[in-house]
Amino acid sequence: MTKFAIIGGSGLDRLGALQVTSKRLPVTAYGAPSGVVFLPRHGETHRVPPHLINYRANIAALKSCGVTAIFAVTAVGGITPDSGPGRIVIPDQIIDYTYGREHTFSDGTGEQVDHAEFTSPFTPDLCQLLALAAPEAGVEVVAGGVYGATQGPRLETAAEIARMARDGCTLVGMTGMPEAALAREAGLDYAMVSLVVNWAAGIGGAVISHAEIGQHLEQGMNKVLRLIGRALGTALSR
Ligand code: HPA
After folding, report:
1. 119-150, pLDDT tens digit by residue?
2. Structural domain count, the chain
């Protein structure tokens, strides 16, 4: 049976942020699930910056709990017109611009080098589960997008975002990598739900406002949770 985890990002650091609007105990062929695992990526008090997150420990811990599938929540900047603030995107591709992070479980001690297959970095079935759950949850989503993972913690320059746009990125965030790749190495299904909280640097001309980011986080996270809750309900009742 699939055991799910939610990795919470900015704006979703505590389970207390979850607003339970309905409760259901799905009955499966094997009985009731023991629950859904929640892991706040930046720590419960949001102290760990993106470049210092121990991504390997997080993924290894989830695997050791028996988790087999992850919904990763990320707050992102929007680069393309269909990815404006307030949008919820289910990306299907990723480009890695990070550096110096512990990015693999392959540490040279294994018997052979394992080149993880990563053509589709997000598990298509999980992405589809989210896309199908969206109308049922009453949440509008953009199905498909290219997440560009930057190093942070600073935001990007306008020229960096222009380059990312030329590369085909539609979103920019700081935590998607190496998290997605480690999940693949660990054999865990992984899909991302990205909440757009600002226009990326230089898009639209205005300077990025932290107040605006905070507002979009507050307004959008409940929708993200409703979407994931619906997807979980569907998956666990199968
Ligand atoms: N850039 C990188 N990461 C982000 C952004 C951004 O504009 N907004 C939220 N996370």
Report:
1. 999 999 999 999 999 999 999 999 999 999 99
2. 1
